[in-house]
Amino acid sequence: MKILIIEDDPGTAELMRGCLEHDNYEIDIVNSFELADNFLHTTLPDLMIVDYYMGAGLNAQEWLTNRKNANLKLPVFIVSTGQGDERIAVNMMKLGARDYFVKDTLLFERLTEIVKRIRIEVETEKELQQIKNDLDDKETRYKLLVENAGIGVGLYSLDGKILFFNQKAIQDLGGTKNDYVGQNLIDVFGPVLGEKYQKRIEEVVEKDTTLEFTDFVPDLGHDCWLLTNHTPVKNSEGQIIGVQVLAHDITDRISAENEIKKISDFYRSIIENASDGVTILDENARYKFVSATGLKMFGYDGFETVQGDPNKLTHPDDLPNVLFHLNKLIQDPTYSPTLEYRFAHKKGNWIWIESTFSNLLNNENIKGIVINFRDIDKKKKTELALEQSKKMLNKLLLINSELIASELREIDYDKFTDILIEISGAKYASFNLFVDNSLDFSTKSIRGLADISLKAFNFLGFDPMKKVWSHDSYRAEKIKANIITVFNSWSELTQKALPPQISRIVEMSFNLGPVAIAKVTTTKSQIGDFTLLFEKGQTLQNAEMIELFVNQYAQYLERIKAEEKLRIKMDELIRFKNVTVGRELAMIELKKEVNELLSRLGEDQKYMIVGE
After folding, report:
1. Most CB contacts within 10 A, which of 92, 337, 362, 363?
2. 8 A C-beta contact, residue 311 and residue 327
3. CA 291 to mean position of chain CA atoms
């Protein structure tokens, strides 16, 4: 049996192909009604599966109507829809659809059943059509086949009389042949149904084509659903002389579909309204199903599907661990791991999810790997940020201990500037040390790139490491109230210190965004400050830690400064002491010599020497 699938969703089309080729059907696929027209121009399949919505342009109802109105070839067809809609179903049945189905999780289980049934119907109808064509010379054989057909067969005159019912039709309706043959439709089925059936005869005659109808028929032995095909019967001259009706009792199928729909709606409601997402992968790790919550979680709307290889959508650092557990899951279906890893959002960023994997490949209704997942991105990033903060705090405590214990007189400004880059998340940073008047300052360190000083020299025309910056009253006023002050741009910070065009060139060359000043100050005065430069899109991080760091750094610099002053004073004191003590000893020796000379002269000693 040759089947044409008209479907614009390549994933759904390929899944249908795989499902039907398993039963040895020959499958062709087109993704637009234009391509379908081209295909039907040269090839007539036994069955078409038509997607009702095909994106922009015509829907299935409009396309089929156009072909009917143009008297173009129209094979037997069934209709697929994204959601159940009785109105659509009725309209498509009026156009001749043999059946319709909803593309849900039970699609492929029902699809094979529907196609199998229609194949049987088509084959039966072909047999009956052949019988009708050969009616004149094979009347006996025809009657035998019709009488013993597995479906109800009837023949109506144009004025609404029942000319023939086979045994199956009489069995379904109850009674005997005499209760129906020769009777008027209104007398048999009542005024409401009888008039409806009469209008169908008139419609078949008017359109001169086979029409299909689905009806709920109550109070005829039992309540039932009938699917009927009405075909015009013509004589040898091509005139319509009656209407043949093939009636299929589809009560069991409708009941089963309604029950399945109730169950499906129940579980779909649970899945679609749950906060967790659900996806199903086939044995080749291709997507079979993704819940609406899951689609929304990754930035897709309800009409999109997640595209791409799940392996490529998993963060490369997390993929080896995921594959390890997935392989273990395939080897042991009882194994059900819960993993945390990063998965690609539609916008290209990574989000953290927690997924529980279940192997249901051997489940006939699922045949896949079921993944229940939830968004833990905020939680995970908070945990990572907290962990990073703990590491940074421990580092600050270690630095603080080193500062307290340090006996070095030479200050490694680059080291402390690098530490502040790490804490703040800045791309570049400099440290400026104020001179004794606390107004002018010099740059002691510029960090971030190995050649940043050279680049700065090229733009500024001087080496910033060798320049003493004059007092900037605008800058001082802006930063005086806070330890940390954030400026929107480099131009805003330097508007009084540098020409605007130079500031703009620096901003563009280094892709600069916001700039922050972190003051290094004591209770008495400001010792210096750090200038933190961020690229566009970056923001200041760990402000509290920065304040803690610059406070400790200020105390360290103050201690180094005080120790240096103390060393100088001590050196002066020692030099003074050495000079003073030497003078006193010389005086004592001189006094001794004078006393000795006086003694030689027989005179009294003039000076009293302490200690003698």
Report:
1. 92
2. no
3. 12
